[in-house]
Structure formats: structure tokens, C-alpha cells
Amino acid sequence: MFFIFDVETVPDFEFVRKVIDHPEEDEDDLLIQASEELARNTSGFLPPMFHRMVSWVGLWIENNGSPKQKVAWHGTDEKEGLRSLFDALSTYKDFGLIHHNGRGFDLPLLTYRAMKHSMQMPVRLNHYDIKYRYSNDNIDLLDEFSNYGASSWPKLKHLGYLIDIPFKQTGEGHEVLEMYRRDELPEIEHYCYEDVMATYVVWLHLKYTVGDINRELFENLNDRAMGKLKEIQDT
């Protein structure tokens, strides 16, 4: 079994204030200040340590790619959200993971936040099959398409354009904080679900392209996935 997942977050302003000397009072000004002092990238997006989780969505699929079950959570109690995710991951013993930049953001985030809340993660997440960068059980589309950093990392939205599929129709990552401030938590989960389905669609195309699944299976799974993606985008 594989677990395709995505996590949505907002900055942990309380923690950021502890780290920065003379923090700004206004959250937006604080975010600019934190981006200048803590971010390691040109976009100013904070490292995973400085975020907290507000939603996650996961899709269980069988090894041949057939979808099995969707699980999800959204809320303001991060500890509850982590517990629900870890419970979901305990459904199967030797699961694999599929994601887009999960190694760079989502998985480190889960470790930081579990440690913050004195929680124990599923043992599988620390297993060699998952931690090993070239593992067939922990598939990061960034690594798959960039040949493990030898080439540039593609955005999920651009991968959608490449295969003529419109992704990111229900929101963009930088909009999550404003959605959270408007108490639009179900909408954040909905946006997260679109990202998960987009990841699934790209993964299916990749598996077909490299010859891991045949055309008949690919077309069947892709038709079903595209139907679900359109349903999400139209809701």
C-alpha cells in the first residue's frame, strides 16, 4: 500500500516570536521579518520548523495504483491533527509514501511538530525504507523528475500544465494563511485534497511513461482520477 498525502500549514507565530530578537507586533510585519531572518530561499517561505499544521489529506492506493480510501483532517488543534494522521498511518504496517516535496517540507514538519507536542510518530516513518533517499517506498516527485537534484525541481502546477491538466484551481499555497484567518478550514482541506489528487495524477503519468504500468491500467486509473479531480475543482 502507498499513502499519497499533502499537509497544509500556517506560520507558528508564537514560536517565531521566541526565536527572533525584537519581533514585530503585527503578524504580517513579523512574517516579513521572519522571512528575512529565517528563510533559506528567495521566496521567503519559512522552513518547516516554523509552521504548524492546520489540515492534511491522504489517499491510500494499492501497489498497482488503484485507489482504496481517502482520509483527512482540518482544525485548530494541531495535536489532534497529528494524532489522526498517525492513527491513519497505523492502518498498514509496511506502507510506502508518495508526495511532492514531502522530503523537503511535510516529513520534517511532522517530526518537528510531533516533538513539540511530545508525541511518538509511527515507527515506519523512521524505517530505512522511508529514510533512504533512493527508496522505492518513499517517492518524492521532486526527486523523480529532477534525477535527485541533478536537474531543476518542477512545481506541481507546472507538471499539470505539461500534461494539459489544470491544477491549483481551488487555491494557492500562499493563500492558506488568509483562508485560515477567515476561518475557512474546510476550504483549506478541499484545497489540500486537490493537491493530493494532482500528485496522484502526475504519479500515474510518470508510472506509465517509465513503463511501470500498461496503457489499459493507466487509462482506467487516470480516467477515474480525472473524474475525481474535476469533481473537487467544481465543488
TrEMBL record:
InterPro entries (UniProt xref) = 3'-5'_exonuclease_PolB-like, RNaseH-like_sf, RNaseH_sf
* Species per Swiss-Prot/TrEMBL record: Fodinibius sediminis
Recorded protein name is Predicted 3'-5' exonuclease PolB-like domain-containing protein
Query: Residue ranges of the Predicted 3'-5' exonuclease PolB-like domain?
Result: 44-230
Molecular function in Gene Ontology: nucleic acid binding
What Pfam families does this protein's entry cite? DNA_pol_B_exo2
